[in-house]
Structure formats: C-alpha cells, structure tokens
Amino acid sequence: MAASQTVPQYSQHCNFVPIKPQHGVITLFGYGINVRVDRGHLILQDGVGHVRREARLSRVGHGLRRLVVIGADGLVSLAALRWLADQDAAFVMLDRDGSVLVTTGPVRPSDARLRRAQSRAQDSGAALKIAKELIRQKLIAQEQLVREQFQNDRSMQVIADARHSLAKAQSSEEIRRCEAHAALAYWTAWHDLPVNFSAADLRRVPEHWRTFGSRMSPLTRSPRLAVNPPNAMLNYAYSILESEARLAISELGLDPGIGFLHSDTRTRDSLACDLMEPIRPQVDAYLLQWLHREPLQRKWFFEERDGNCRLMGSFAVRLSETSQRWKQSLGPLAEWISHTLWSTTRQPSRAKAPATRLTQRRKREAKGILTVLVGSIASHETSGVSSKAANGGHFKTGQREGRELLKVVRDRELS
Length: 415
Prior knowledge:
Number of strands: 12
CATH class of the largest domain: Mainly Alpha
Shape: globular
Number of domains: 3
Order of helices and strands: EEEEEEEEHEEHHHHHHHHEEHHHHH
CATH architecture of the largest domain: Up-down Bundle
Radius of gyration: 26 Å
Distance between the termini: 42 Å
Mean pLDDT: 85
CATH topology of the largest domain: Four Helix Bundle (Hemerythrin (Met), subunit A)
C-alpha cells in the first residue's frame, strides 16, 4: 500500500533532514531504516537515495508516542525496543501493502480471570452482547454519515432496517448478515463520490481514479489491493486503526486473537477486528473531509503494473499521524468490553474491577471526588474550631472520618 520512489544514483554524501514527532508520531520509510540507541538517545534514520532523514531523541521531552515503520529494509536494535518500552511508546511495523506485521506497546500485568472470561464469552452470553453493541454503534454512525454527507434516502433506509433487525439477532451469523446488508447500501452511497486532483495532474490521472468507485478491488474481489487513491488511503488508515486496536486490547490484558464477531483464523486478531468496527465510520468521515477539503496530488500515489494503487511513503506519513485520534476513540470501547467480560466472572467480594488504563476514567473520577472531599473537610474543620468546646470529641471524630474517606479515594486512584 505504501511505496518508495525509484532510487536515483548519487554520491554517498548526503545531508540529513531532521525528523520531529507530529501529533506524537514518527513514521519511517524508504531504504536503510535504522533504529538504535546511542549514548542514551534514540537514533532514527530513513530515506531514499541521497534524501535522508534523522532524529536524535533524548529520554525527556521527546514527545514520541508511536514509532511506525513501513517496509522491511533496515534494522531495529533490541536496545531501541527497550528504550521505547521505558518511555511507554509503541512500535508498529507495516508491510508495504499496508498489512500490520508487528505491534508492541507498554507491557502491563494481566488478570487470568479476565482472559478466562474472554474465552468463555460464547457460553456466558457476553460475546453476543458485545458483538451486537459494537455493530449497533457502527450502523448508527454509518446512517448518520450517509444522511449528512450523501443525502441518500434509500441507503439510509436499508441501514436503518438492518439496525432494527440487529436488535433481534440471536447469533453472530445473524449479526454479520445485518452488517453485510448495511455495508452494501453504505458503500453504494459512496460509489459516485468525485475525487478531485490538481489541474496540473489531470492528464496523468486514470479515469477510474476520479471517483470513489467500488469498495471491492477487481484484483482480489475484496477491499485488499485497491486500484484507486481513495480506497488505498482508506485501507492504509484502517491499518493504522488496526494497530491501535491491537495495542489497546493488549494493554488491558485481553487476548487480541479471541474475538466475538469475526471468526477465528490463523492470521487474524479477531478481537482487534471486532473493536475496529464502531470506529471505521470515523475513519471514513476523516477521508471524506479530506476529499472535500483539498485536491489529491498524483505524486502521492504509485500504480503498479497490475493496477494496484499504493501510497508513496512520504504521503503515508500524514495518515500515520492520525493514530492518536483513533487511540482516543478506541479506549472507551475497549474498556467497556473489558468490564463486560469482568461482570461475568465469579469475583471475590473485594476484587477490583479492571483498570481504566486507556481513558484514566477512574483516576479522573477519584480526583473529582477528592477535590469535593477536601473542600468539605476543610469547611468542616473551620466550622469545627469554633464549636470544638461545645461538641467535645465530635470535631476529632469528623477529622478522623474525613481522613479515612481521603484514604479510600487515594487507594481508588492508585488502582
């Protein structure tokens, strides 16, 4: 999906262009990619021919949250992976066709009870509940996008009917059937969407590049190996979304391969694919806004001899920078799945619910409660000074109860 330009022959001397994180993301592409550590600094190098880029990041103030590598020409040292882990930064490796090869992120302790609940979700009923909710949110978002952007009443009605049928679904097969009916109507609304190019590029742009066309590639009879730029952009953005879904699931201690909607296969992380579904319309809306906002440029894309359209590495960098946006969207859904599974376990009376590491929701709630309690206790202490003699030991009792409440909240914040 991402391609590198033809390498011209130049002398070995070249000037390095500095690389800086954009939205917390650095994307490396080209040939001779080098990721290593030198004197405590992370060294990043990439480029094509004489055009080389380099970054030297210290452990403080670097701003890096995601390192994305496109291609397989180069090396990544173990020390560099350790450096990224120490900084809570994730590493993502994508093949040139856009498929996700490797994702690594911060390692967190996992609860075996949660994974056991995940593996038993089909029997407990949690799998059906989770699958229906994920697709319900997806269909709502698709219907809204078609209504606001395409004004296609027929597609809207089909999606709405599929959403109503979804509520009655009793199996994953019925859920997939509802989703498929909605998808057919949804992508039909996209078919004739015009794709604009700059006036200077029009003579070099194939006719089938000028509309969105079919989501199914004639090369594979599936979305893979897109034959025009908008579908190639969408495939690459979905790959970024998939990598973020894998990282989110792993950080919560779940198994990315045990899904509830997508069937089990040897080469797919089914739960990551499940988690992606409600966020796909957000990716679609992002692409649609881009196509409305500015014309595409021919130099951003490369057409192979079989007609497969790929993104140039320099352009794929811009799409990689959206990863933090998708991370924020995935977090609440991933945590909801975790808590839904946890609710099916036999929990000890004092067992803690799964941590909200992605959204920090419980920490924010604890801080909010703490602020209220501090104000209340301070007010109580102030009023208590004047009435201490009259109330005897009640003032000390109020102080003690307040401190106990504060301790409970702090314990909750740390959990």
